[in-house]
Automatic annotation (TrEMBL):
Superkingdom of the source species: Bacteria
Residue ranges of every copy of the Acyl-CoA thioesterase-like C-terminal domain listed in the record: 166-309
Alphabetical UniProt keywords: Hydrolase
Documented EC number(s): 3.1.2.-
Residue ranges occupied by any Acyl-CoA thioesterase-like N-terminal HotDog domain in the UniProt entry: 47-137
Organism for this UniProt entry: Brachybacterium aquaticum
Family matches, as PANTHER family: ACYL-COA THIOESTERASE (PTHR11066), ACYL-COENZYME A THIOESTERASE 8 (PTHR11066:SF34)
Molecular function in Gene Ontology: fatty acyl-CoA hydrolase activity
Keyword Metal-binding in record: no
Name of the molecule in the record: Acyl-CoA thioesterase-2
Length: 315
């Protein structure tokens, strides 16, 4: 992805390139008897110098999906974020096949980088930055029911991130306004610059999201794009409940774990409504529960994320 480009089509196409991994023929040092494939991917530059967690998660979805039997789509995944990634070095994804049953397949993937890439020590050793387990299922008929999307204004009526952050001279604001490959539009007032106006009383956050420009990609990559996009806003319901914003001095946040259940598969070019709540924050951790609905109001995915969230006292 070219960080200097502001062309939406080029930025969105760069996301597809980022998630479409290169196969590696030689098994890595973590290979087991169950290892079935190894892939490699690059990173997109980010403010702050670390790899965006949604990127690693989306790439891991691609890696496990490449090894699933034909006709089986991902229906759930669980990821642990173990260490920050270094965007200056490629990421290796080693996939193990844990089970191939009559209808379901289970895969595990470890995302690694050289240890010295992140901390300058342990040359020659590997640093695992993400561990994911994912399950795949054949398309089958069965019992059906679902919750429906809440009422929300059309995304075309809402300001873009660039509109909200216009005139803000800050590297993060510039990146969010011009470089993010996902178009995010807040139904609930954005908290980029200031806390929620309701002072912690807003329990539900809603955002619309889709690719910044339409992309042509295989269905697996649309699943990976959903994983990528789902990691942008889960901290915001926690911040709202606590009367904080992204600009709160001393704020430190990091994703611990992230899970997704795909109920239906979507085209990431179409608008998706991401409805999020934070039922709990304790012990320096915050939990967010999210539901993703398509434009027709159907529930297409459920997301949970737990993150470390701390505010360093000023002084």
């Amino acid at each position: 992805m070219t960080p200097s480009s502001t062309d939406p089509a080029q930025i969105a196409a760069g996301l597809v390139d980022l998630l479409d991994l290169r196969p590696v023929q030689t098994p890595g040092p973590l290979a087991t008897p169950a290892t079935v494939a190894v892939f490699e991917g690059d990173s997109s530059p980010q403010p702050g110098g670390h790899v965006f967690g949604g990127q690693v998660m989306g790439q891991a979805v691609t890696a496990v999906g490449r090894t699933a039997p034909e006709g089986r789509r991902i229906h759930s995944m669980y990821s642990y974020f173990l260490a920050p990634g270094d965007p200056a070095h490629p990421i290796t994804f080693q996939v193990d096949a844990l089970r191939d049953g009559g209808s379901f397949s289970v895969r595990r993937v470890l995302a690694t980088q050289p240890a010295d890439a992140a901390d300058g020590e342990g040359a020659g050793e590997l640093r695992t930055i993400l561990a994911m387990t994912a399950s795949f299922q054949e398309v089958q008929d069965g019992l059906e029911h679902q919750e429906r999307a809440p009422e929300a204004p059309d995304p075309e009526e809402l300001p873009t991130t660039a509109d909200v952050l216009a005139g803000i001279d800050h590297p993060v604001a510039h990146y969010w306004s011009t470089q993010r490959p996902i178009d995010i539009r807040h139904v609930t007032d954005p908290i980029y610059l200031r806390p929620d106006a309701n002072g912690g009383a807003t329990e539900t956050q809603m955002v619309w999201m889709r690719t910044l420009s339409p992309v042509k990609a295989e269905p697996l990559l649309h699943d990976a794009i959903l994983a990528f996009a789902s990691d942008y806003t889960p901290f915001e319901p926690i911040l709202r409940r606590q009367g904080l914003s992204w600009m709160t001095p001393g704020l430190r946040m990091a994703t611990i774990d992230h899970a997704i259940w795909w109920h239906k598969h979507v085209d990431a070019n179409d608008w998706l409504l991401y409805v999020q709540r934070s039922p709990s924050a304790s012990g320096g951790r915050g939990l967010t529960h999210g539901q993703v609905f398509d434009r027709a109001g159907d529930l297409v995915a459920t997301v949970t994320q737990e993150g470390m969230i701390r505010v360093k006292p000023r002084g």
